[in-house]
Design goal:
heterodimer; A: Archease, Possible Chaperone, Chain: A, domain 1; 3-stranded antiparallel β-sheet; globular; B: alpha+beta; 2 domains; 7-stranded mixed β-sheet; 25% strand
């Protein structure tokens, strides 16, 4: 389980991985929040539940990350811990997740870049040798 | 043979990509050789994208007119390249999400003051600090104007005119804002409630990344007639505000990537790249998208109007200025799609002009331009970097013919954020600039390293290429004195 930032001219490109697709999505989320604030200072004080559906794993990944970006403005929350489960459901894929975090604190969280959106460029969810990878580019 | 091998150089600053594959029209790139070489090198580095291939993609979209264009600050974007321009026929063309992007109507407002550099320089720390405290910037900074959903609907419909009516502006701000500060055709119902919820405390905030507020002075006037029309003279202190539609626009962009993705399938439009999702301009989906981005554009006009008010509040406090002495030179966006009339092959036609990281730059005589500027063309603002210069340029007659009246918007990145953060150290950048007489006020030192002057291309080259190509004409060179960053 983990994530890394790839080199990219204007924005933030992420490769996240895990033993399950859910873990890869959780790491993708940590990379997203980690681009905006210092993850280690975000305490898991409060939680939010997410339920999303999509026509593909890639589009589900975009919706999942976009929901976390929006949450920062709507409830003011940023998260550091994620529990994500993904299941096939007919022709769709469904995500159920819990995220733990706290209200964004400009003094403690070392705010960085503001993510504008999750792009469809370089978007990929794949399994390779038993490891799931989630790759995306965030526009900042 | 890749796109670069196919590029034919027709002048020092103009390259043509003749149609092949699915291209309907040629690609036309206005840039110097160094820019083309740099784009080629980046692609060789294994970058995931290529600006020239993106020009090719734009040239392949239904209803594209004349040519897919790229301006001298061209670099890879999402869908369209940054510095990309594409005009589409209203009857047979499409509205493309990747032609506008997430930061709808991101742009620059330039304010002029009666202050001289010599009066401000000794007191720059205090003046800069007050601006830094007055204008909310950076991640999580809320604006002082907090709006209900009903008020946000009015911002969507009325743009800067709403903010001025609420008391945050002076009489001629709207006259000197593109579209009078209000894009017509905006429909709040085309904008999701999530986009509105995210916006409620963001009007009057600068944001982060490459957005900035700069206190600058006019170093050189390069076109006396135009500078006089714009009220600019050497030594004069001006304030540039670079920001956009904030979370409102970001969410509209995100929502319509999905909505127009579905529309593409419905209308069986083959797209060369996922970011080029689109809908026929005349379709209900296309009309809805245009109504949404008009709302997003109005959000950006409102945002810059509110920040202009905050700049006045600060300069009143620190310099004893009357708020009405701080005047809007112009406010213009560089991410938008607009219906405009242009002469194409000897015939005046309505087209939807997408400008992505490109401004409108109308030459003399256009009715859209404020009367005071109509004889010289309206101003455009070319952002440099924190340590170098910015430019005021103007539209030209040749630019009307060659690029649908479009202009450059900035220097463009040369290094990735990651490479810049490795190469530069925020505190070092701040102290080096301080020695050069430029004060940096930033919430995020890492952000300063990412935006270090060395991370950007040379603005002089970009301006030079636009001028040599005759697209835009330089009016004045501005130097930063204090820089406010998120």
């Amino acid at each position: 389980m983990g994530f890394t930032y790839l080199d990219h001219t204007a924005d933030i490109a992420v490769r996240a991985w895990g033993g399950t697709v859910g873990e890869a999505f959780a790491e993708a989320a940590r990379a997203l929040i980690g681009a905006m604030v210092s993850l280690e200072w975000v305490r898991p004080m409060t939680s939010r539940a997410f339920a999303l559906r999509g026509s593909s794993l890639e589009l589900l990944l975009v919706d999942w990350l976009a929901a976390l970006v929006a949450e920062k403005d709507v409830s003011g929350l940023v998260f550091s811990r994620f529990d994500v489960e993904i299941e096939e459901d007919g022709t769709e894929v469904a995500l159920r997740a819990s995220a733990w975090g706290e209200p964004l604190d400009r003094d403690r969280h070392e705010p960085r870049a503001e993510v504008k959106g999750i792009s469809l460029l370089g978007l990929r969810v794949r399994v390779d040798g038993g490891t799931w990878f989630a790759e995306y580019v965030a526009d900042v | 043979m890749d796109e670069f091998d196919r590029l034919e150089q027709v002048s020092d600053v103009e390259w043509v990509l003749a149609p092949y594959d699915h291209m309907i029209v040629p690609g036309r790139i206005y840039a110097d050789r160094e820019t083309i070489e740099q784009l080629r090198r980046e692609e060789g580095d294994g970058a995931q994208w290529s600006a020239i291939r993106q020009v090719k993609h734009v040239a392949s979209m239904p209803g594209i007119v004349s040519a897919a264009l790229a301006l001298p600050d061209v670099h890879p974007g999402y869908g369209f390249p940054i510095g990309g321009v594409g005009a589409f026929g209203i009857d047979d063309g499409v509205a493309v999400v990747g032609g506008v992007g997430f930061d709808i109507n991101c742009g620059v407002r330039l304010l002029r003051t009666p202050l001289q550099r010599s009066e401000v320089a000794p007191d720059i720390d205090r003046i800069g600090e007050d601006l830094f405290r007055t204008v909310p910037a950076g991640l999580g900074a809320g604006g002082s104007l907090r709006l209900s959903i009903r008020e946000i609907d009015r911002v969507l419909e009325e743009g800067a005119t709403y903010v001025v009516r609420e008391g945050f502006g002076v009489a001629d701000d709207l006259e000197f804002t593109e579209e009078g500060g209000r894009m017509s055709g905006a429909d709040p119902d085309a904008v999701s409630s999530l986009a509105k919820q995210r916006e409620f405390q963001q009007v009057g905030t600068l944001g982060s990344g490459n957005h900035y507020l700069e206190l600058q002075y006019v170093e050189h006037v390069l076109d006396a007639a135009a500078a006089a029309a714009y009220g600019l003279s050497e030594g004069q202190v001006v304030v540039a505000v670079h920001t956009g539609s904030r979370a409102l626009g970001h969410q509209i962009g995100q929502d319509y990537l999905k909505e127009l993705g579905a529309a593409c399938t419905r209308y069986a439009i083959a797209i060369p790249d996922q970011e080029m999702v689109c809908a026929p301009i005349k379709s209900p989906e296309g009309q809805r998208y245009l109504a949404a981005i008009a709302g997003g554009a109005n959000g950006a006009f409102a945002n810059r109007q509110m920040i202009a008010h905050l700049v006045r509040v600060s300069l009143t406090r620190t310099c004893g200025l009357d708020p009405s002495a701080v005047r809007t030179v112009y406010d213009i966006g560089h991410n938008n799609a607009k219906v405009e009339e242009h002469e194409i092959d000897g015939e005046v036609r309505q087209v939807l002009v997408h400008r992505k990281g490109a401004t409108r730059a109308f030459g003399p005589g256009r009715p859209e331009t404020p009367a005071a500027y109509r004889s010289v063309g309206h101003p455009i603002f070319v952002g440099g970097t924190m340590g170098t210069a910015s430019y005021v340029m103007r539209g030209t007659e040749l630019g009307m013919k060659k690029t649908f009246g479009s202009g450059i918007h900035g220097a463009g990145r040369a290094l990735s954020r990651k490479k810049a953060a490795k190469k530069f150290w925020g505190e070092d950048v701040v102290s080096a600039l301080r020695k050069a007489g430029i004060r940096i006020f930033a919430h995020d030192p890492r952000g300063v390293a990412e935006e270090a002057p060395g991370a950007y291309k040379d603005v002089e080259r970009v301006v030079g290429a636009a001028q040599t190509a005759g697209l835009n004409h330089a009016v004045a060179r501005l130097r930063p004195m204090a820089v406010i960053k998120g």
